[in-house]
Amino acid sequence: MEIKEAVDLFKKKNSLMAAYNHAMGVMYYDIETAAPKNAAHGFGETMAALSEVTYKLSVNEENFELLDFLTAHSDELDEITRREVEEAQKSLKLLRSIPIDEFVEYQRIQSEASSVWHEAKVKSDYAMFEPHLRKLVDYTRRFAKYASPDTDPYDYWLNEFEEGFTQDVLDDYFGKIKAALVPLIHRVMEKPQADDSFLHKHYPAARQRELSAYLMSVMGINRDDCSIGETEHPFTTGFNKHDVRITTHYYEDALASSMYSVIHEGGHATYEMNNSDELLGSPLFGGASCGMHESQSRFYENIIGRSRAFIDLVFPKIQEMFPEQLDGVTAEQFYKAVNRAEPSLVRTEADELTYSLHVLIRYEIEKKLLRGELDTKDLPAEWNRLYKEYLGVDVPCDKEGCLQDSHWSGGSFGYFPSYSLGSAYGAQILAHMKKELDVDSLVRNGELNKVTDWLREHIHKYGMIKKPKELLQICCGEDFDPKYYIEYLTDKFSKLYEL
Amino acid sequence: MEIKEAVDLFKKKNSLMAAYNHAMGVMYYDIETAAPKNAAHGFGETMAALSEVTYKLSVNEENFELLDFLTAHSDELDEITRREVEEAQKSLKLLRSIPIDEFVEYQRIQSEASSVWHEAKVKSDYAMFEPHLRKLVDYTRRFAKYASPDTDPYDYWLNEFEEGFTQDVLDDYFGKIKAALVPLIHRVMEKPQADDSFLHKHYPAARQRELSAYLMSVMGINRDDCSIGETEHPFTTGFNKHDVRITTHYYEDALASSMYSVIHEGGHATYEMNNSDELLGSPLFGGASCGMHESQSRFYENIIGRSRAFIDLVFPKIQEMFPEQLDGVTAEQFYKAVNRAEPSLVRTEADELTYSLHVLIRYEIEKKLLRGELDTKDLPAEWNRLYKEYLGVDVPCDKEGCLQDSHWSGGSFGYFPSYSLGSAYGAQILAHMKKELDVDSLVRNGELNKVTDWLREHIHKYGMIKKPKELLQICCGEDFDPKYYIEYLTDKFSKLYEL
Which residues of chain A lie closer than 8 angstroms to B45, CB-CB? Predict the structure, then answer.
């Protein structure tokens, strides 16, 4: 085969695959936002049928040969095509190594586990879920061994989610985080808390919708490229740089909840909308990794959105929109209220300071599970012990404990660390951005576009062309270093709580 | 091949095709309701890719052989499978007979015509659209000849949209309609009009959304099977009986607009939700024909929704929801206001009495176009002449004249008559329903479910298993007869206008 012919064939397959992924992505968005309740069954059937088609399109000898041929000639490919081939190989590596009957069986087990987990969570009944989790852990370890026999299974999965971040890096990272944050949180807890009761007055959803529009405009989000919908759990999904969707959920007694979910998801959306035009239709559209994606959402949410400068920028407008609820409240009080930190039970509701300890606990647990050092039967006890030790809280029930997250029920082990890494990336990126930009002044003056321009040029435009470690080099001229994150949190919360 | 094997293969193909159609349907719904504006380009690319896949799935020798085999053994098939095969053959008949290069060229022309029409309508510039329409007419005639050389082209297309309704039937039908309605409308026009100014006070969209929910509940629509969205032009789309979507558009200065669009689309939705369970996943899901579908929407909208009994049922609630706007208005006044009839320019805004004359004009024009008796260049003059003659109105510009509808720009000739036939079916069905049910009393008492039960048992449950003419036999024990429609309109409007 000629290179050109092979590349054309490869690109053609990518286009078709993109069409399927687009359609399935829209169906997923639709079922979460618009579909009536009873649509679920038909949705499941169609998704299963289309998944089978896409599976067959990519998992077949002809495609393997094509990819192997292109891989062998990767020197002759342009950068984007080379990365596309590399990502295709990566996504197929596991499928190529697993016996098909085990793969099918695993799909069944995963789907069952997911459905049992939903029920178990409602009933707070871990025993019900445990046998399913056990099977998933077993398969997860086994599959890693198929794909990479000489690699520690947890390292295999960590590397899948965040390339280059295996246990040696993460042990060091989390060790430093724990050493710094556990005592910092203790000191914070000894201080009086700011009053945030005004955030919990009645905030009508209709008005909050207007606030969302305002925040998106402050972020410079082009609404012709990005819509906002409403779902129980906020999320972002993008089909190409001109079609990105964010969602939020309005709680009428919690102003900050939707406000910060819009800024968070708006950060994810900004990343995708700022991909370069050459990634239109490419499988490299999106973010470099889960961690890098999360770094952008949390950058906007916390580093920008919860900064004093941002509050100075937006508070007058927010007060104008909610004059009764925020009567007499100052920007300083609002700033302190949206930055209240205290140990809690649920990761997704955790504040900026304590968040990474929630992730650390999950890291330690899944590490032990995959290394065979923790039996799934003993998981709740270990979970509760760690929450007590690191965060000082007593877990009242598994619903608010080890059953709270869906990740494990979906077979994702090794995903959690990327949430924390995202925050750490963000702090490191900020430190270097500040050498070039006066970030606080720009934000205070409403010139967020200049911050976003910097991120677009250093991160967003690359989509998946560059890997997380390469992007950190581009942004910072150095490798990943957790010290910036620790310094950032220590500095911010020492000032906030006058330590 | 064994019959069983062939049927299994056929059903498997149907399932896969259903998955594609489901995905494309959701994408279409999404682009109309939720997608950001700039999503259009990516949407077009994905739809083109998936359309090509589905085209290849059905238009191939292997599939033709399968269908021919099953057709040859149709006696051995159960009723549903037999009808599925028949419909598949019908939908492929044209594709099998058209040279592939002409089909591809036609797709291009159609897509171009559609896009030019949008612009031409905005600019009210028929000359811009005319060359495209000319090509479409030419292809439409040619394709009919390929598919059925011995049939008059317009008869071919009419029969495609509404089986059994060719020019001889429709000439008779429209002749009677014209003879009865033109003088009736003249008499109505001599009478004073009821005041409907209260319908054009300010009706906030938020409140109108609550009215939609109320109307859907009055209609007995299970919201777990049917959602409501908002689009510029209301429509209904259904993926299976448990996943139907209606849309509406709220005009804050026109209460009746959204109100009757919800009832109209709710009628379409009710039809699909009432398909029998055995049609889940079958291509026979939906309605027997365009005309039969329209008969149900217009039955709920006009025959039920604009009846005195229905106004008695819902007006107290509507007045409660809009106490200021409807202060002092009586149910009788409301009834007269929503039934105001007068000649107008735009079909989609026409009242119940004049509606079929709008359709008649289109019927006469497309008949002449396809018979070569009218040159596309002369279309506006003919259009304007007919509007003056039948409806007594002067057409000020082509935007409100012959460019108003999208149908011809999409290559649909022969579709319009089904709109009018739907109304006529409804009146005939009503006459026979009344032999078994006291429709007015049921409606007045809020027992619409009994009316819907009757329609489900006589029409809805069959989906596409039965054809329009068969359904009329089931409902009425007789063939189509326009006299009921004429009697219904004459009676209703004679009373309303005290003729």
Answer: 15, 19, 281
- Closest CB to B38 among A26, A46, A224: A224
Buried b (16+ CB within 10 A) or exposed e, A449-467: ebbbebbbebbbbbbbbbb
Give the model confidence (pLDDT) of A167-207 as tens digits.
999 999 999 999 999 999 999 999 999 999 999 999 999 99
Segment A10-29 shows an average pLDDT of 96
Q: What average pLDDT does the structure give for chain A?
A: 96
Its ipTM equals: 0.91
Of A212, A221, A218, nearest to A269 by C-alpha is A221
Give A134→chain B minimum CA distance, Å: 34
Residue B1's pLDDT is 77
Total beta-carbon pairs less than 8 A apart between chain A and chain B = 119
Mutation target among B37, B216, B243, B246 for the A interface, most CBs of A within 10 A = B243
Task: For chain A, give every domain's residue range.
Answer: 1-97, 112-499
- pLDDT for the residue numbered A100: 85
pLDDT digits (tens, 9 = 90+) for B175-233: 999 999 999 999 999 999 999 999 999 999 999 999 999 999 999 999 999 999 999 89
Average pLDDT over residues A471-498: 97
Amino acid identity for residue A263 in this structure: I
Closest Cα partner for A492 from A265, A304, A291?
A304
**CATH fold of the domain at B197-344+418-496:** Neurolysin; domain 3 (1.10.1370)
SS (HEC) of B47-115: HHHHHHHHHHHHCCHHHHHHHHHHHHCHHHCCHHHHHHHHHHHHHHHHHHHCCHHHHHHHHHHHHHHHH
**How much is the pLDDT for A429?**
98
| Beta strands at A243-248 and A236-240: parallel, antiparallel or unpaired | antiparallel
Cβ–Cβ < 8 Å for A329, A320: no
Phi/psi at B136 (5° precision) = -65, -45
- From the candidates A160, A265, A352, A364, give the one annotated as an active-site residue: A265
Q: Which long-range contacts (CB under 8 A, 24 or more apart) does B23-27 make?
A: B23/A23, B23/A24, B23/A26, B23/A27, B23/A46, B23/A50, B23/B50, B24/A23, B24/B50, B24/B51, B24/B54, B25/B237, B25/B239, B26/A23, B26/A26, B26/A27, B26/A30, B26/B239, B27/A22, B27/A23, B27/A26
CATH of domain A112-499: 1.10.1370.30
Q: What is the mean pLDDT of residues A329-357?
A: 97
